[in-house]
Automatic annotation (TrEMBL):
<dbReference type="InterPro" id="IPR027417">
    <property type="entry name" value="P-loop_NTPase"/>
</dbReference>
<dbReference type="InterPro" id="IPR051162">
    <property type="entry name" value="T4SS_component"/>
</dbReference>
<keyword id="KW-0175">Coiled coil</keyword>
<feature type="region of interest" description="Disordered">
    <location>
        <begin position="530"/>
        <end position="553"/>
    </location>
</feature>
<feature type="compositionally biased region" description="Low complexity">
    <location>
        <begin position="1"/>
        <end position="12"/>
    </location>
</feature>
<dbReference type="InterPro" id="IPR033186">
    <property type="entry name" value="HerA_C"/>
</dbReference>
<feature type="domain" description="Helicase HerA-like C-terminal">
    <location>
        <begin position="67"/>
        <end position="530"/>
    </location>
</feature>
<dbReference type="Pfam" id="PF05872">
    <property type="entry name" value="HerA_C"/>
</dbReference>
<feature type="region of interest" description="Disordered">
    <location>
        <begin position="1"/>
        <end position="37"/>
    </location>
</feature>
<feature type="coiled-coil region">
    <location>
        <begin position="482"/>
        <end position="524"/>
    </location>
</feature>
<feature type="compositionally biased region" description="Pro residues">
    <location>
        <begin position="13"/>
        <end position="29"/>
    </location>
</feature>
<protein>
    <submittedName>
        <fullName>DUF853 family protein</fullName>
    </submittedName>
</protein>
């Protein structure tokens, strides 16, 4: 009721003027037409007249559409980034779809995340209806159904699209810390782990590789590796390992691996020159908002790293729509926000435009918001004191206009928005209440069989469809730990063998010593007995006594010869 009272207030002075009928007649159309007078409408019309190519947003609203005042965005300014904001159900997705269709038609590739699956309608011609045609005719849009060339991707292969994967190394410690919810100390330690892996040629392909490196650096064999770099505490490593396990249990393992996506595949155009709209299907990870938003930031960072500097172009090389942007900035560290701000500021010179799609401008940090040249603000709701505060803050960011923006922003219909963009000269255009054009594609999801046929026909399916498991940190460190364990086992076996040999030698020496002592004792006992029995000496082999002269004669060889001759003669045994 208060909102309706506000517009009636300026009409109060007009009510007592029915008497002068002649002057009242020409003045009546302007107040009844809306809040803008003819000069303001003319200024807005001139403010949105550009020399180069443009994207048509819709018609100026002054209570009713002003067909002659078309609101546009210069195509060359699309790399100056933008914001599409508004409460749920106000038409943000359709605005995004309409922008994507026009960009693609002008040869500009588009990337967008399809949170709810209803952006897939760009691939199917729209369905006309009386209501739709009446609306489009009223704003001067020559509507006709038309489909756009579309490529479907699925994060981690969860969904119908071509699987999109990243390696852990490519994802990096900063983005991974954001996903895991690590504090500054843990984030710094994770960065140290990545540095060690990179310096030692340990490829971090998936989460198991990162867990293997953490386990190695906290093991007895590997804990000295980071000594010169400050070391890694077991407590911090334990926290990171636990978060990684939880992260993997939530299904994140499927998002990391090879083949890794080459973001240059987002820069393709069709044979007829139209840009390809790349849709990342994410309904399967809607319950993992941090992963989804951080993955989009990874793709953006990869584009920044890979693309060359091109300066200002007649049209961008790619426009990147960042849906549900508030998820990216929630609970972000200072380093992470700084990284986002730098990427958004510098990627413009790479020919990439970024449009953040969210509910209120306050969802986007001020340093990032300051980089956005175009703003399409759908209706805002003010049901709570915080909502009212956010509404006033939003109004304060717009240039001065003929609208009561605090009121208009709450009264905008579905498919209407407050628009201001960056002109070709780099200055902001006048604020324009705009009824937006309708998309030419289907404003509901493309049927699943059509999506599946498109995916199977995609040339990218052969490139990314099958996951591979190359040799990486896990295999290298497993082999290293196995080798260390085998070496340790060999050393332990050698030590045990040496100890056994030493014990054997000791026992043999003791036995020999005991035997020698026993023999010595036996000899002493023998000598004692011999002495007691009168023996002359201790020798066991005593010398024989000298033979007598008779023995000498009888035993001589001569005597033996004579005796043998006598015997042979007596008994006749000798030879004759």
């Amino acid at each position: 009721p208060e909102a309706s009272a506000a517009p009636e207030a300026p009409e109060v002075p007009a009510a007592p003027e029915p008497a002068p009928a002649a002057p009242a007649a020409p003045e009546a159309p302007e107040p009844s037409a809306g809040p803008l007078d003819a000069d303001q409408i003319s200024a807005i019309t001139q403010g949105y007249s550009f020399e180069g190519g443009t994207l048509d947003l819709g018609a100026l609203m002054n209570t009713d559409p002003v067909v002659g005042a078309q609101i546009r965005i210069p195509l060359g300014m699309m790399n100056r980034h933008g914001l599409v904001a508004g409460a749920t159900g106000t038409g943000k997705t359709r605005t995004l779809q309409g922008l994507a269709e026009q960009l693609a038609a002008k040869g500009v590739p588009v990337f967008a995340a399809d949170m709810k699956g209803d952006l897939s309608g760009v691939a199917t011609p729209g369905e006309p209806s009386d209501k739709l045609l009446a609306r489009t005719k009223a704003i001067g849009q020559d509507w006709k159904p038309e489909a756009s060339v579309t490529e479907y991707f699925a994060l981690g292969g969860i969904g119908k699209g071509v699987p999109v994967r990243a390696t852990v190394s490519g994802f990096g410690p900063l983005l991974l810390s954001k996903v895991l919810g690590l504090n500054a100390t843990q984030e710094s330690s994770l960065g140290l782990v990545f540095h060690y892996a990179d310096a030692n040629g340990l490829a971090l392909v998936d989460l198991s590789d990162l867990r293997a490196v953490l386990s190695w650096l906290t093991s007895d064999e590997g804990k000295g590796e980071l000594k010169d770099l400050g070391g890694l505490s077991a407590a911090t490593a334990g926290v990171i390992l636990r978060e990684l396990i939880t992260f993997a249990d939530d299904g994140a393992d499927t998002f990391f691996g090879e083949p890794e996506l080459d973001v240059r595949d987002f820069l393709r155009t069709a044979p007829d020159g139209r840009g390809v709209i790349s849709l990342l299907e994410v309904p399967g990870v809607a319950d993992k908002p941090a992963l989804f938003s951080t993955f989009l930031m990874y793709l953006l960072a990869e584009l920044y790293e890979i693309l060359p500097e091109v300066g200002d172009l007649d049209k961008p090389k790619l426009v990147f729509f960042f849906d549900e942007a508030h998820l990216l900035f929630k609970d972000a560290s200072k380093d992470f926000l700084s990284s986002i701000t730098q990427t958004v500021r510098l990627i413009r010179s790479k020919g990439v435009g970024v449009f953040f799609v969210t509910q209120t401008p306050k969802d986007v940090p001020g340093d990032v918001l300051a980089q956005l040249g175009s703003r399409i603000q759908h209706a805002l709701r003010a049901f709570t004191p915080d909502d009212a505060k956010a509404l006033r803050a939003t109004v304060g960011t717009y240039p001065k206009s003929g609208y009561d923006l605090e009121r208009v922003l709450q009264e905008l219909g579905t498919g209407e928005a407050i628009v201001t963009v960056m002109s070709e000269k780099g200055a902001p255009t006048p604020v324009a209440w705009t009824r937006l054009r309708a998309p030419q594609g289907l404003m509901s999801p493309t049927p699943d069989p059509d999506i599946e046929r498109a995916v199977h026909a995609s040339p990218l399916l052969a490139k990314y469809g099958t996951a591979i498991d190359p040799e990486s940190a896990r295999e290298i460190l497993t082999a290293k730990m196995n080798a260390a364990a085998e070496k340790d086992a060999a050393e332990q076996a050698a030590k045990a063998q040496a100890a056994a040999q030493k014990e054997l030698d000791k026992q043999q020496a003791a036995a020999q010593k005991a035997q020698a002592a026993a023999e010595k004792e036996q000899q002493r006992e023998y000598d004692r007995l011999m002495k007691a029995s009168g023996g002359a000496s201790r020798t066991r082999t005593t010398r024989k006594p000298d033979p007598s002269p008779l023995d000498q004669v009888l035993n001589s060889k001569t005597t033996q010869t004579i005796l043998n001759s006598v015997i042979r003669g007596m008994f006749g045994t000798g030879r004759r």
